[in-house]
Design brief:
alpha/beta, about 210 residues, six-stranded mixed sheet, Ribosomal Protein L4, Chain: A, 6 strands
Length: about 210
């Protein structure tokens, strides 16, 4: 698959070949969905906790006498039906981690990249680097590339100038190519790929 190679001024400076086995496959929606659910589940801390009636700190003494009051025969104020009592069947700490075979995770990434490529939402740059961190420079670059919505910028390695330039833009995210994931590919409309990041992606998914 041939796509235009651009510079940060938005000018076409050549062409680049995107591998069909990564950017041109038939997308597998079910695997993408499974990978997204896995990623969201693995983010959960699972630290939620409620106290049962045995953990609530209240008096264990019988609340009132057994007979003669006309009320129900309650033995403790810790029961879930009383304010301040325990919670019945409440959440307890647990792990939400889901596992997924590596080949399925790679298929999900290839599918998401293929969807972006089919929609012409992948922009390949010859290089992307700023002399200093400046939000205005990032905004101008995105305008030059006709990116009018959200975008994720993949970087081959840490680049403090680019990362800090995008920090104040809520619709833009910088991400090192090694951490490419389905959630960010589906969340952002455009994928901006400098050639260095493209090489990393092809190495990971090739």
């Amino acid at each position: 698959m041939q796509v235009d190679l651009k510079n940060i001024a938005g000018e076409t400076v050549g062409e680049v070949e995107l591998r069909d086995d990564i950017f041109g496959i038939e997308p597998n929606g079910a695997v993408m969905h499974q990978a997204l659910l896995r990623q969201l589940a693995n983010r959960r801390l699972g630290t939620h906790k409620t106290k049962s009636r045995g953990e609530v700190i209240r008096s264990k003494a019988k609340w009132y006498r057994q007979k003669g009051t006309g009320r129900a025969r309650h033995g403790s104020r810790n029961a879930p039906i009383f304010v301040g009592g325990g919670v019945a069947h409440g959440p307890k700490p647990r792990r939400y981690v889901k596992k997924m075979p590596r080949k399925m995770r790679q298929l999900a990434l290839r599918s998401a990249l293929s969807v972006k490529a089919a929609e012409e939402r992948i922009i390949v740059l010859d290089t992307m680097d700023f002399e200093a961190p400046k939000t205005r420079t990032m905004v101008d670059t995105l305008q030059n590339l006709s990116v009018d919505t959200s975008a994720v910028i993949l970087l081959p390695e840490r680049n403090e100038n680019l990362e800090r330039s995008a920090n104040n833009l809520s619709a833009v995210k910088t991400l090192r190519a090694h951490y490419l994931n389905v959630r960010d590919l589906l969340k952002y409309d455009y994928v901006i790929l400098p050639t260095g990041a493209l090489a990393v992606v092809e190495e990971i998914l090739g």
